[in-house]
Amino acid sequence: MNGIQSSRVDDQVVAIEAGMLGCMVGDALGVPVDFTSRDSRRESAVTGMRAYGTHHQPAGTWSDDSSLMLCLADSFASAGVDYQDQASRFVAWMQDAVWTPDEEVFDIGYATREAISRLEAGVEAMPQLHLHDN
């Protein structure tokens, strides 16, 4: 790889890291006000990190959304596009709180729990699909 190609790769890595960090900051801003109404946000806009709120977490805590994004990024970096590797990392997150800010899975949606539980039970991560399955 020459210097120009290396520079482009470095720029891409920085852009990916910045995008992920932006997602995590937005996620952490939203955790304390998760499931609250727009009216309550108009009355008390989120202008900085808040503690506790909906999920009783310290300020700056990210949610399952960021944790699962980190699992996916870790999988891509370690194994490329490998659905079984991704599945194992999602299971590790749910069971062992991998990639959580405080070693705790404090909220998980029904569909997410159901999907990861199926992976844990051995359902294939990406079965062969046919055109009529779409």
UniProtKB/TrEMBL annotation:
InterPro entries membership: Ribosyl_crysJ1, Ribosyl_crysJ1_sf
What are this entry's molecular-function GO terms? hydrolase activity; metal ion binding
Q: Where does Mg(2+) bind?
A: S63, D64, D65
Q: How is the cofactor bound?
A: Binds 2 magnesium ions per subunit.
Q: Does the keyword Hydrolase apply?
A: yes
The Swiss-Prot or TrEMBL record lists the needed cofactor(s) as: Mg(2+)
Organism domain of life: Bacteria
Q: What are the alphabetically sorted keywords of the record?
A: Hydrolase, Magnesium, Metal-binding
Name this polypeptide is given: ADP-ribosylglycohydrolase
